[in-house]
């Protein structure tokens, strides 16, 4: 087995006992995220509750929500003083990510619009599988979760890998993501063989502005 990277998940839960404030606007949420991430410890439960307390208001986030007709997009909202990245991902009908890890970072995902399906997988077996029959080589599916507007989910590498997809063929989806610490590449996995490869992650827009409209490299976001 590939050992999942060690994270501080268990201890982090104990580092903050007070209830988080309720964020009534996106601006409040950004401000609170800056405050919590200015500390060295990351309290997963606290941030989960903080993000849950914000009720999606499209008027506040639509200037960041820039879609591509071919693939889902990653749109940077805030760089979090280098401690975290806040971004909005826009999913067209049927768009899906690759199966990926999270580069040893914490990942929080909140639905702002529509629905997403999160499919979680176990890390691949490191042993040589060339002798195994085809149907036993792939990644083992662990769970499927349907996320609806305003729900929040959390993952780190100790919990496995995942793929995220918009199962709807008639509605788009928009999600808000916090990554701590920020990262610019992760691993993507072949579901059938378990093979992994490094993938750079890019932004489709930054701070509400699409700068590289003609740059094809920004069409390759692989992570969420
Ligand atoms: Fe992800």
Automatic annotation (TrEMBL):
Belongs to the cysteine dioxygenase family. One of its GO terms (biological process) is L-cysteine catabolic process. This is Cysteine dioxygenase. SUPFAM superfamilies: RmlC-like cupins. InterPro entries: CDO_1, RmlC-like_jellyroll, RmlC_Cupin_sf. Keywords: Dioxygenase, Iron, Metal-binding, Oxidoreductase, Thioether bond. Its cofactor is Fe cation. PANTHER family: CYSTEINE DIOXYGENASE (PTHR12918), CYSTEINE DIOXYGENASE TYPE 1 (PTHR12918:SF1). The lineage of its organism: Eukaryota, Metazoa, Ecdysozoa, Arthropoda, Hexapoda. Gene3D superfamilies: Jelly Rolls. There is a cross-link at residues 107-179 (3'-(S-cysteinyl)-tyrosine (Cys-Tyr)). Fe cation binds at residues 100, 102, 162.
